Amino acid sequence: MANTLDSMDLKQIISLHLDGFSNRKISLTLGISRNTVNNYMRVFKASSHTLRELLACDTEVLETLFTSHTTIDNKRFDDLSRYFERMKDVEHHPGFTFLFHYQEYVQQVENPYSYTQFMEHYHRKYAKVKGSMKLNHEPGHELYIDFAGKKLHIVERDTGEIKEVEVFVAILPNSHYTYVEACKSQKRGDLIHCCANALSFYGGVPKAIVSDNLKSAVKRASKYEADINRSFKEFAHHYNCVINPTRGYAPQDKALVENAVQLAYQRIYYPLRNITFFSLQDLNREIRRLLESYNSLLFKRKQASRQELFQSVERAYLKPLPSTTYELKDYRRAKVQKMGYVYFSPDKSYYSVPYRYIGKETMIHYTNSAVEVYYNHQRIAIHRRNPVIGHYNTNSEHLSSTHKFYSDWSPDFFKKKASVHGNHVLGCVEKILENGDYPEIGYKRAMGVIQLHKGYGSQRLDNACKRALEAGAVSYRHIQNILKNNQDKSSLFYQDLEEDRPHIPEHENIRGASYYK
Questions:
Q1: 333: burial class by Cβ within 10 Å (0-12, 13-18, 19+)?
Q2: Residue 401: how many other CB atoms lie within 10 Å
Q3: Which of 380, 390, 414, 485 has its CA 20 to 30 A from that of 336?
Q4: How far apart are CA 38 and CA 22, in angstroms?
Q5: DSSP letters along 408-450, please?
Q6: CA atoms within 13 A on the CB side of 106
Q7: How far apart are CA 137 and CA 204, in angstroms?
Q8: What mean pLDDT comes out for the span 236-258?
């Protein structure tokens, strides 16, 4: 420090303090930096003399007591201190940087400090009380993920509509090797798809995935034990890792990925600002190209790139990828029907389960390729997914036509019911029961045919069944269509003609005989 405070200045500081002035008011009154006043007040209080004794001392005595205590050029430092006070008010504003304010400070004062002195004085003036531990990241231990706050966009080629898209960012903290991908949304399916792509990009799996408290990842945030989304848990189980969400209101937990997001703005967003993309595929192709350049940049202090650090160190610590990629699961509740099937509402179809679970409430887990049925967290059936609407998907080991629920439902039971409505109805029911792959399916179809008598009457049903038998197309739907279209009545018309016409020997009227045939 250049200049020693005059002994009279010291006495003025002491006098004003004894008069009840605050350090700030003393600084304004004497034109001395508040920081200087604060420093001298600390020195005064640490002295073996009281303030009143120091005030009574001669000038020579004060100069002897405080010879080593000096201060800086008042005007220059006062300008800096006043600027610091204005700068402190906006320190938490988004986008705040010290470099911006230093450049502004240089333009406003005549004799500015260097940037190093500027920062040194600032940190002395506003020393941090709360400490922060530097985290040492083990290689292959964690993968940090997050969605960028700012979005990119694509353009619909046909309509010209601009659609915003989310940007997923992942980073391995030891090597800082980064992955970036654009996706449609932050929903569960897109999040899991991006995570799977990131692990494929790295060629391995870390011990844990550290996510922000996204709704698609965490159902309920907690500082100590977050409730992870079920699908995300199953994704982690498939890849043999765990999900470790960051603590709420603890930004230091995700500082690394936040920094990666900021770098993505600089290295990826900015170069793409003047390019128009018409699909996510095109956008992601360009992101991959820029990402490769970004990961290849050398660190200034390490003399190596992110990619080199990853390849030489971190990759060896990652666990191998599973043999199959994860398929997103969805869930539906379903009660096992009397026939031993659960109704699968997304495809409006049916899947069999072991008959002993009839009447039980089950949970269906399904993907694009498989349908699994669980009861009390135990899988009781698995089927390949069949998208055909209304189809009965059956495992022959599941069904039994002898268990107690079918004590009444038997071939004789349905034949007896059908015979009441006519011989042709009985014939159709017998055909249906014979052709069914499994008794239970035939029972339901037979019951459907018999129930048609309620809307059309027994006589019309019998006639419709006769027509179906003659056509060789015996099914519930075909018989129903005959009745709806009144085709059963046309057969009655020809029957009446056959009964009313006189008998003519075939050799006498061949044309007529052939006509009525």
A1: exposed
A2: 16
A3: 414
A4: 10
A5: S-SHHHHHHHHHTT-HHHHHHHHHHHHH-SSHHHHHHHHHHHH
A6: 12
A7: 17
A8: 69
Q: Which residues pair with 436 in a beta bridge?
A: none
Residue 94 has pLDDT above 80, yes or no: no
Contacts of 86 (CB under 8 A, 6+ apart): none
- Assess contact for 403 and 415: CB atoms under 8 A: no
Q: Which long-range contacts (CB under 8 A, 24 or more apart) does 44-50 make?
A: 44/13, 44/14
Q: Are 399 and 352 in contact (CB under 8 A)?
A: yes
Which residues face 165 on adjacent strands? 152
Length of the chain: 517
Residue 324 token pair: 């199959």
Residue 436: exposure state from Cβ atoms within 10 A (0-12, 13-18, ≥19):
middle
Angle of helix 487-500 relative to helix 458-471, nearest 10 degrees, comes to 90
Distance CA 433, CA 451 (A): 16
Query: Which value, to the nearest 10 degrees, does the dihedral of the CA atoms of residues 310, 314, 318, 323 take?
Result: 20
- The mean pLDDT of 173-192, rounded to a whole number, is 88
Burial class of residue 74, CB neighbours in 10 A (0-12, 13-18, 19+):
middle
Alpha helices in 70-206 (DSSP H): 74-88, 98-108, 115-125, 188-202
The answer to whether 239 touches 321, Cβ cutoff 8 Å, is: yes
Question: Per residue, what are the HEC states of 227-243?
Answer: EECHHHHHHHHHCCCEE
Q: Is the pLDDT of residue 197 over 90?
A: yes
Q: Is the dihedral of CA 118, 122, 124, 130 positive or negative?
A: negative
d(CA 489, CA 485): 9
Q: What is the pLDDT of residues 137-172, one digit of tens each?
A: 778 888 888 888 888 889 988 888 889 999 999 888
Q: Does the CA dihedral 380-384-389-391 come out positive or negative? A: negative
Using CA atoms, how far residue 149 sits from 161, 190, 261, 291, 448, in Å, is 22, 16, 8, 18, 58
Do 164 and 152 touch, CB atoms closer than 8 A? yes
Whether this model's pTM surpasses 0.85 = no
Please write the tens of the pLDDT for every residue from 310-362: 888 888 889 999 888 888 888 889 999 887 889 999 888 999 998 889 889 99
Q: In what helix (H) or strand (E) does residue 455 lie, and over which residues does it extend?
A: helix 453-456
Class of residue 348 by CB neighbours under 10 A (exposed 0-12, middle 13-18, buried 19+): exposed
